[in-house]
Amino acid sequence: MAVAGLYRRVLPSPPAIEFASSEGKQLFSEALQSGTMEGFFKLISYFQTQSEPAYCGLASISMVLNALAIDPRRKWKGPWRWFDESMLDCCEPLEKVKAEGITFGKVACLAHCAGAKVEAFRTNQSTINDFRKYVMACTSSEDCHVITSYHRAPFKQTGTGHFSPIGGYHAGSDMALILDVARFKYPPHWVPLTLLWEAMNTVDEATGHQRGFMLISRLQKTPSLLYTLSCKHESWISTAKYLMDDVHVLLKSDDVTDVQKVLSVVFTSLPTNFAEFIKWVAEVRRQEDAGSSLSEEEKGRLAVKEEVLKQVRETELFKHVAASSCCRNIPSLIDKDTLPEIAASVCCQGAELLTGKVGSSNGFCCKTTCVKCLKANGDTPVTVVSGTVVTGRSEQGVDMLVPFSQTNPWSCHVSGPCNTIRMHPVTSDIITVLLLALPPGTWSGITDEKLLQEIHNLMSTDNLPPLLQEEVLNLRRQLHFLKRCQDNKVDDDLGVPSLSQ
């Protein structure tokens, strides 16, 4: 029987020039000498082929995020944190992307949610001269990359809408190098920048908007150092709606007379799967890989996380939350607030990740856990929770690196070998950070003016220490983008949302 299928396409040339051709090599050499191939080497190091016919947007984003060395803050496979198309699911379900593709606005949203700085422009919001300047600037740097959304027709290529990064620019011929992520179809190729603009200056029928381009770079500070919002479970939709819409309405009740009433209103009607929405980030490592010492990177990362936790505990809002009975009685969070329970759970998760058996039917059981402080060369003590995880007949030693706070204990604590009371992240501080991250307009429904002013003072980010302020504003930014995705408005407004509303 004959085997049906397509093996690549012949690249229409002109207008394109294949990268690996003699002419293409000459363009590369000249552009390299001119300094407009600087971004190429990072991109080519992480160049990937889209894994599904409709995953061009996801492949472009994961390629650029990896080239920028942005930490996903979540595991990919085994012990590795790495951007992959399968992890880019916060703005659109992967199955839907697989079936229908993804829009320009949602690709920009994905990059935002992943922790990148994004500037997105449709062709009716920019000019070809501005586009050329952006391309020249990004191709002359390793710190910024351009992703284009274009229609293939002006290049005489088969297919319709497509996403790919720009790998370089040749000023003499005014040509851009497209690193086509559909490598099974076309190789990387040079195209006239004017023709690329024409290809972008087309309407995406799915949204009715012009296509365009986006500039992706690193944020000055790493976002979500300790806390992050999770879209892994579909319950995020109901939780985001509750926090961004419903709470404001519920607070209009005349019964809201003091801070504890406000907290009660917010947390009494929480969606069932609320605990899946906001997490504190725990990290694991194999004991045999790591030995007894921590790397400078691990120590530095833990030190920053501990400072964030300390700053949360020092807010006045935290004191109200810790004293609130409604917050202490949130069963979905409080049932794993003790360090042994968290350690057992996270060490099991870590063992699954480290052995590459995530979701395996082979059960993981945490046999033992112990808390220890590591201190060397006068460094600040670092808390490590060690566990022995059993699966079948094998055992895996796992360490969990735990951020701790040494402020006054408002919730559960642990005394370690350091003879100091030190507290790990628990429900009260997670709730505190989430409350701070809610948009200021959330509280405007409170009718009592004196109470409204008190709440605004408690929830204000203006006077927070810079580290905690950045953490909170990043979570607020995530909330805004999730709300836009939920309302299908990311394609109507590409700008970064105002965090003061």
Automatic annotation (TrEMBL):
<dbReference type="InterPro" id="IPR038765">
    <property type="entry name" value="Papain-like_cys_pep_sf"/>
</dbReference>
<dbReference type="Pfam" id="PF09328">
    <property type="entry name" value="Phytochelatin_C"/>
</dbReference>
<keyword id="KW-0479">Metal-binding</keyword>
<dbReference type="InterPro" id="IPR038156">
    <property type="entry name" value="PCS_N_sf"/>
</dbReference>
<keyword id="KW-0012">Acyltransferase</keyword>
<dbReference type="GO" id="GO:0010273">
    <property type="term" value="P:detoxification of copper ion"/>
</dbReference>
<dbReference type="GO" id="GO:0046938">
    <property type="term" value="P:phytochelatin biosynthetic process"/>
</dbReference>
<dbReference type="InterPro" id="IPR015407">
    <property type="entry name" value="Phytochelatin_synthase_C"/>
</dbReference>
<dbReference type="GO" id="GO:0016756">
    <property type="term" value="F:glutathione gamma-glutamylcysteinyltransferase activity"/>
</dbReference>
<dbReference type="Pfam" id="PF05023">
    <property type="entry name" value="Phytochelatin"/>
</dbReference>
<protein>
    <recommendedName>
        <fullName>glutathione gamma-glutamylcysteinyltransferase</fullName>
        <ecNumber>2.3.2.15</ecNumber>
    </recommendedName>
</protein>
<dbReference type="GO" id="GO:0098849">
    <property type="term" value="P:cellular detoxification of cadmium ion"/>
</dbReference>
<feature type="domain" description="Peptidase C83">
    <location>
        <begin position="1"/>
        <end position="221"/>
    </location>
</feature>
<dbReference type="InterPro" id="IPR007719">
    <property type="entry name" value="PCS_N"/>
</dbReference>
<dbReference type="GO" id="GO:0046872">
    <property type="term" value="F:metal ion binding"/>
</dbReference>
<dbReference type="InterPro" id="IPR040409">
    <property type="entry name" value="PCS-like"/>
</dbReference>
<keyword id="KW-0104">Cadmium</keyword>
<keyword id="KW-0808">Transferase</keyword>
